[in-house]
Each structure stands twice: as C-alpha cells, then as structure tokens.
Amino acid sequence: MRRNLMEILCCPVCKGELFLTVTEEGGGEVLEGTLRCAACSVDYPISEGIPNLLPQTACGD
Questions:
Q1: What are phi and psi of 5, to 5 degrees?
Q2: Which of 11, 38, 42, 61 is the least buried, fewest Cβ under 10 Å from its Cβ?
Q3: Strands (E), the chain
Q4: pTM of the entire structure?
C-alpha cells in the first residue's frame, strides 16, 4: 500500500480518520501494518501490501 493513499482512505464504518501503524515496509510501500479508526476504535489489517477495509462482522452459527 502506498502511503499517499492515507489522504483518501477513511473508516468504512463511521467515515472517521484512519491512523497508520507500519510493521514492515519495502520498496517504498507499506507491506504489513494496521489502519486504526480513532473514532470507533476498529482496526483494519494491512497484509502483503493490501489493506483489508471490510467491516468486521460476527458470524452466526
């Protein structure tokens, strides 16, 4: 994920601002880390350079 994407990304749940925590970087891109919404305290993982911004839901059964 390129860092400049932070300018356009927002929380898909509440549209709040996301904060980036990087655990691994390479080739000028974030490879591993977390995007955290300050407003609703939801974490979105970044794995292999791809942010997973799907809202987390509990599965029934």
A1: -65, -20
A2: 61
A3: 18-26, 29-37, 43-47, 50-51
A4: 0.85
